[in-house]
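Hi,

Apologies if this is the wrong queue. I'm a grad student, and the batch job for Outer membrane lipid asymmetry maintenance protein MlaD from Marilutibacter penaei produced an output file that my downstream script rejects. I'm not sure whether the problem is my script or the file. Here is the sequence I used:
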Amino acid sequence: MSTRAPRIEFAVGAFLLLALASLLVLALASTNGRFGFGGDTYEVTARFTNLGPLRPNAPVKVGGVAIGKVADIGLDPVKLDSVVTLAIDSRYDDLPADTSAAILTSGLLGESYIGLAPGGDPDPLKDGDEIFLTQSSVDIIQMVGKYMFSGGAAGAGNDAATGEGNATPADAGDDDVPDYLK
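Support response: The file is valid. Your script probably expects a header line. Output copied below for reference.
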């Protein structure tokens, strides 16, 4: 055996340690230094009637700055509302108790996120609190459909060209109906 063998073994070992150290640095960088223990966040909940494309791990933002993420999405079996659990970074533990939450979209087709608007209450949100002022997601396709197909509101059954059809005038009909409903 030659005297070069220990040097080659040392070089291979050093290269292996360098590769493992670089993988550890890459793993820490991809998790932002957090290992998932969750000790540096507090959780609050919010109820929405329509989530749209909101998904777990979506950002929670105040004024465009990410302060947390969506930790969990569930369904209340009694009220049939979507219950969203927000994990907010503990650095932002001074959010007012009357903070409102809305499901927003980055751009026209971008990602959905929760936007928080702080209120003026001197008491802060605490772990386990619920945000009561919420605004659900807006379905753009549904809005466009309502706009496109609401053009013939003057006479629901009338023919647009002749004005004839099966619709009755508002003043014809039952006299028991108040004037403001005619």
